[in-house]
Amino acid sequence: MRFLTLGFTVLSTSAFAESFDRPIPQAQSATAELWFAAASLTLLIALYVVHRLVMRK
After folding, report:
1. Which of 17-21, 24-28, 37-41, 49-53 has the lowest mean pLDDT?
2. How far apart are CA 53 and CA 57, in angstroms?
3. How far is CA 32 from the centre of its chain?
4. Which helix (H) or strand (E) holds 21?
5. 27: Cα within 13 Å, side-chain hemisphere
6. Number of CB atoms found within 10 A of residue 44's CB
7. pTM for this one?
8. Is the pLDDT of residue 39 over 70?
9. Backbone phi, then psi, for 5, in 5-degree steps?
10. How far is the C-alpha of 47 from the C-alpha of 41, rounded, in Å?
11. Quick check: helix, strand or coil at residue 41?
């Protein structure tokens, strides 16, 4: 029974397998770059505020 199950598993996976097509990376849009820059600046400002709050204590 094990050989039968193993045989069906091997046959079913190899029979329906497709070749792997690598995804093509898309270029980043200007809007995405703008949002990334805004998020980066916000993060830096938040880190500076935390630094100032920690240094006061």
Report:
1. 17-21
2. 7
3. 16
4. none
5. 2
6. 10
7. 0.52
8. yes
9. -65, -45
10. 10
11. helix
